[in-house]
Sequence to fold (454 residues):
Amino acid sequence: MLFMLNSAQFIAVSGLLLVALASGLVGYGVRHWRKGRLGGDDQAVSQLTGALKSKEVQAEILIESITDGIIVVDTKNTITLINKAAGRMAGWPINEAMGLDARVVLQLIKDEVSGEVVADSEHPFTLILQKRTPFRRTLQLRSRDNKKLFISLVISPVILPKNNELMGAVAVFRDVSEQRKEEQKHAEFISTASHEMRTPIAAIEGYLALALNDHVSHIDEKAREYLQKAHSSTKLLGNLFQDLLTSAKAEDGRLANHPVVVELGTLVEQLVEDMRFGAQKKSLEVEFLINSGGKDTDFIDASGSSNLKVIQPLYYVKADPDRLREVITNLFDNAIKYTDQGKVSVGITGNEEVVQIRVTDTGSGIPPEDLPHLFQKFYRVDNSATRSIGGTGLGLFICRKIIELYSGSIWAESAVGKGSTFYINLPRLSTAQAAQSQLSENPPLISPTPSKVL
Ligand code: ADP
Fold:
């Protein structure tokens, strides 16, 4: 029914279940006992009713004692349960919040700079009831009295296992503003330090390149060998500082981000062409597959001069193309880095709601126990292959942060010795939505009304 709950959620949900079970079972027991023994023993009835009450009271105490906020909604997003902690964070007395639309009570901020709130249609409560998949993210909440706090929010659909019926959703959230402040200070320090260190590193790299240049310097073979090693280590250090700077910016929301409507089919195909050379240096085959499955609704007629019509779907998303390039390049570079022979294949497909990009390789693969940690900061699989291959363990963390900026998801599937596939899902725009969005990005130039010639 509900999956992947943390301990607080588990207690909360157990509490809710306790209420439901206590009400349901004891109520059922009372009714049936009455049916069977009409005019019978009142004492037993009152014992059962007492038991029900005490279970309800227990559950209520339990829910109110939890310091995490809990909101339960039905299938219309109407609040059927809200605890004190949730009311306090959202700025609503619980008796006023009960029965209201949860999206009114839990107002989430979409844009930290402008303070714009998430529209009802994009609100996680709406999405959960549509998609029936859990939602987890740290977001900013705007309380009723206009205070802003960061919350770590998990919303799970409540589904009856018996008939798969959707009953509503349960949200559990926690104030992480203090933690967030600490993280921001930390990120600021890393970003300043790495920024300062990038300049001398670039200078060292430049001078080493000059020392290795035959036209400028004369050095013996031994010195060349040493300088080449120093040069490649300096390059690695430069990459590390660049990655550190990017990840610090991604963490405190300072990553340059200018989302526009992007047609991903064209962008990914272009990128694969640009990256083909890197794969060929390792004699790896490169493949690009567009519309490899899925249901497509928006098509362009890409027929050339021949009679044969080639139908190519359009995969529109709203994102910063530079950031997307960074993500796809990273996945492609990793595929090359961790593959000795075979093929790197990039595919793009989609349905009405999402565009999916995948990067598949025939490389070393990733052990199952490492898969859940790959997108954490500095995580590297510890094996002989990764020890000999340079890397910072920050690439996939940065990828995740970027994809989350656009409400997307990123994950990996892999089998050791067989290869890996990295997937990205991004919310898809229909052709009509894309056209409308493009229009607001570039409003048509209105020609001035010609002045009347008298
Ligand atoms: P790195 O700089 O170490 O490559 P990443 O964050 O990009 O950092 O990747 C994290 C770790 O995930 C890598 O160290 C590697 O162990 C593993 N990894 C990533 N991509 C692949 C892949 N295509 N095949 C095998 N292992 C991979």
Notes: The chain has 13 helices and 15 strands. The chain has three domains: 7-175, 197-251, 260-439.
